[in-house]
Every structure is written in C-alpha cells, then in structure tokens.
Amino acid sequence: MFMTTLILSHDCYVVVIDQHDLHSEGTSGEQPRHIDYENTYKLEPEATFNPERVESIIGTVLKENLEGQTYQRHLMGNRCLLLSDIIKERVKKLNLPRFKIVCVVLIGENKKQTVMISSRSLWNQSCDNFASCEYSKGNIYAVGMVFAVYQE
C-alpha cells in the first residue's frame, strides 16, 4: 500500500491512498484512487449569521406569498412547508459555509387572540443565532423563524 499526503493550504489536507496490489494478475488498467479528506478542525465560522438580512428575507417571502390571502385551514399546512422551503433556499444563497439552516413557518387564523411561540435549543452563543419575522393582515398571521447552527 502506498500513501501520499498533499498539503493544499494551511487548513485542508488531502490524503491519497493507492491500493494497487502489485501481485495481482490479469488487470490491465489502473485501479481508481481512493481519496480521504482530513478534518480541518475549524472551531470558528468564516462568516457570521446576520439576523437583520435574514429577517428581511423572511418578511419579504411572507408578504409576497400571503398578501391578499385569507386563512383556509386545509391549505395552510402545505403553505407552511412551501414558505419554509423558499425561505431556507434564499438564506442558503447568503453562502454561510458550515452552518445548518433550520426554518420554521407557522400560519394561523387571526381572531384577535394572543399567541406565544417559543423554542429551545442547545447551541454555542458565540456563533449560533436566529432570526424571526411576523406578518399579519386581515384574518391571517404568520411567523417565520430561521435558526443557524454552526457545524464544527
């Protein structure tokens, strides 16, 4: 077995392992190389999560998709899934490497009631963050929340 280590930069190593058996017979071509990537052990993110930018994305998506809509209970479950997917894709375009993005959208009927929404999570306060935005018009209200958790 032959092993070569290539150093590409100060934080990324590539190990190329050539497992070509010299004693095998009947093989005319080269065997494909197997590449193992070493861990980078980055403990701090390269980019930070900006809650203000994400709040504007959430507000824009909620307004674009719920403006002029009325609450229809049988349609809102699928609408929540659709809106959370749209928000998540737009947040991913901000190019936050190594962040896991979790998006939750809640839609309800506005009957002048009080609603409290809470969430709990275990995270690192120095690099994990969240953003939320509310939308309310007519008989419909919506809350969009995005959580960004850094993956070491």
From TrEMBL:
Pfam families: Tctex-1. It comes from the Eukaryota. GO terms for molecular function: dynein intermediate chain binding. CDD domains: DLC-like_TCTEX1D. One of its GO terms (biological process) is microtubule-based movement. GO terms for cellular component: cytoplasm; cytoplasmic dynein complex. PANTHER family: DYNEIN LIGHT CHAIN TCTEX-TYPE PROTEIN 2B, T-COMPLEX-ASSOCIATED-TESTIS-EXPRESSED 1/ DYNEIN LIGHT CHAIN. Belongs to the dynein light chain Tctex-type family. This is Dynein light chain Tctex-type 5-like. It comes from Biomphalaria glabrata. The gene is LOC129926459.
